[in-house]
Amino acid sequence: FFPPQVLLLACAEDLECVPGFRQKVFYIEQPFEFTEDQPVLNLEFDDCKGNSKLNFEVSNPDFKVERDGSLVALKNISEVGRALFVHARSEHAEDMAEILIVEANEKHGALKEIFKVEGNLGIPRQKRAILATPILIPENQRPPFPRSVGKVISSEGTEGAKFRLSGKGVDQDPKGIFRINEISGDVSVTRALDREAIANYELEVEVTDISGKTIDGPVRLDISVIDQNDNRPMFKEGPYIGHVMEGSPTGTTVMRMTAFDADDSSTDNALLRYNILKQTPTKPSPNMFYIDPEKGDIVTVVSPVLLDRETMETPKYELVIEAKDMGGLDVGLTGTATATILIDDKNDHPPEFTKKEFQATVKEGVTGVIVNLTVGDRDDPATGAWRAVYTIINGNPGQSFEIHTNPQTNEGMLSVVKPLDYEISAFHTLLIKVENEDPLIPDIAYGPSSTATVQITVEDVNEGPVFHPNPMTVTKQENIPVGSVVLTVNATDPDTLQHQTIRYSVYKDPAGWLEINPTNGTIGTTAILDRESPYVQNNIYTALFLAIDSGNPPATGTGTLHITLEDVNDNVPSLYPTLAKVCEDAKDLRVVVLGASDKDLHPNTDPFKFELSKQSGPEKLWRITKLNNTHAQVILLQNLKKANYNIPISVTDSGKPPLTNNTELKLQVCSCKKSKMDCSATDALHISITLILLSLFSLFCKSF
Q: Is the keyword Nucleotide-binding in the record (predicted)?
């Protein structure tokens, strides 16, 4: 009665009525053509209580099950996928049957997978006395629980033998899902299963004697959870944002939307189809885009002319995308997500000046922005297709002008960077062009509106006089007589068209040495110029002078004068140190090394000449010896008693004429004990050799 391609995979007959399908798994060989209204196979269901209110549901809506259990195609079909599931429910029981559709060479492999037996003839051969056929259980079954799902049979007839079930789902986490009637071998499930949590359970069945000792087994018992469509498609990778260039050809791919369905991917429960539910906005066309129902690719379907960013209400479109399982049939579950599509700008509009000619006025001598040039551009302000680049192409030979883009307004800011001179030119005309940062598309070019003229008027202002040269330099000897002429300055008024007079004044004269004639600009001295003054730096004295015109208000110019002062020998050398100490019993009679310095410059300084003033008396007590051009050494000729002595010394520089400094070196002769020098008593004595000699001379005279 049934086609020969249909093979029955049957379990061993139960010894008693077990609610459910008598045959749970069917196998159909491809190729196979399903003919409309022709029975495919017969599904026998028995709830053991009369099948009251029996109802069948098929996973593929192109099939139905008649009241007598016949599976019938509703139309001619050649492709239905890899499997069909039939769910039967009565008032007292429910069960699931699976119809597998495989290639011819997969037949025996399918048999082995289901029965876990050796051989390829489709005939089960049990090495043991336990028959544990695979059990298929639909997920999400409704109470009551526990409910019987299968049965294990044993040919072992030992008295008191019991079945024992173990494994994940029994005595391993999650525990207590399955249990077995130790006498009858009925396997039952205690609660609803979730295929998405655990799809398969591998249990073991064994037979034990009354003492619990295994007498047969263990044998593997496979329990598979049959998928039901209990998971909606989900979009997990959002936000979904796509970009498409304006003017793109019809059929341009924008983006791909992909949803995920946790149901069995080999069934229609996870077979997704995509659809656009809503487009916002709906202009210029309510159907701007199309989505491939199978791949989820979103493509443009309007002409490039309609995909014009500048004419759109908004360059952003939002699409509500629906993903539906069960191949998109009405019974399928749905999930939605929003796709945002942005129409990207391309440079198809050149910038254009808002007018052909701009006017600007600027005062001479002033720098900065003088005018903002405005342009219009219909492209996207956030892109280089809108941002303007300005160039001065004529009228700027002296590079007195520059133009830069205001990044906020896109205006061209024209600036004066070199001060303009009214007396040279009172008017300037610039020719300026504007372009975009990004190049225009090939079929668009810059037109006459992308250039503009700027007319600039320079206003005359009263400019301050200018010294020539500035700074001014002159060389003079220091110590020239008061009233000497240093220099006559020269200042001119740039305002040649205005006939103005100039008067001069001193602005800064740190040492107060100078004066200036207010009319002719002659600078003279009012004091001696001293090269050694602290106001002179590196032999140069600096003063500032003002030139003031007769304008209203008057304008002022500043001139700088540098006077280089030549040195003359006007400073005597100085001697250092002026105090020396020595022990009265010193063995080294080299008392001190003297140095000399001079504020003047060479050759008015060293080499210095060191001399002792004439020593009176019968004995000479010291002498001075030159060490080099700047230093000499004082040496005692004998030990002296503790006292203070003043040694007259003269030092002479090498100037022409030379200058001599006569000074005294104070010598303290101290008592030294245990490396300590005591000079305290010398102050009381404070004997000058000169005074001693004079006293002796006076006594000598009185004796006569």
A: no
Give counts: helices (H), strands (E), the chain.
3, 53
Least confident window among 14-23, 286-295, 310-319, 591-600? 14-23
Predicted structure pTM score = 0.48
Give the H or E element holding residue 110. helix 107-115
Rounded CA-CA distance 133/153 in Å is 9
In DSSP notation, 497-560 reads TS---EEEEEEE-TTS-EEE-TTT-EEEESS---TTSTT-BTTEEEEEEEEEE--SS--EEEEE
Q: How many CA atoms lie within 13 A of 385 on its CB side?
A: 16
3-state secondary structure 646-701: EEEEEEECCCCCCCEEEEEEEEEEEEEECCEEECCCHHHHCCCHHHHHHHHHHHHH
User: Residue type at 594?
Assistant: L
* Nearest-angstrom CA–CA distance, 276 and 337: 10
Instruction: Give the position of tokens 């060490």.
Output: 627
Q: Is 197 helix (H, G, I), strand (E, B) or coil?
A: coil
The verdict on whether omega for the bond into residue 439 sits within 30 degrees of 0, i.e. cis, is no
CB neighbours of residue 127 within 10 Å: 8
Encode pLDDT of 459-473 as tens digits.
Answer: 988 888 999 999 999
457/358 Cα distance (integer angstroms): 11
Query: Of the candidates 513, 546, 566, which is a domain's last residue?
Result: 566
Q: Which is higher by pLDDT, 277 or 619?
A: 277
Strands 676-678, 631-636: pairing kind: unpaired
Chain-centroid distance of CA 630 in Å reads: 67
Distance CA 598, CA 595 (A): 11
Q: Write out the residue range of the structural domain in which residue 529 sits.
A: 466-566
Could you report the per-residue pLDDT of 41-80, keeping only the tens digit for each? 899 999 898 888 888 888 777 888 998 889 998 888 777 6
For position 689, what pLDDT does the model report? 40
DSSP 106: G
Lowest mean pLDDT among 179-183, 230-234, 331-335, 588-592: 588-592
Residues 147, 177: one domain? yes
What is the edge-to-edge ordering of all strands in the sheet holding 273-280?
240-245, 334-344, 316-324, 273-280
Query: Looking at the domain assignment, is residue 678 inside a domain?
Result: no
**CATH classification of the domain holding 268:** 2.60.40.60
Q: How does the average pLDDT of the chain come out, rounded?
A: 86
User: pLDDT, tens digit, for every residue of 449-461?
Assistant: 999 999 999 998 8
Rounded distance, CA 290 to CA 306, Å? 15
| Nearest C-alpha neighbor of 630 from the set 598, 586, 588, 661 | 598
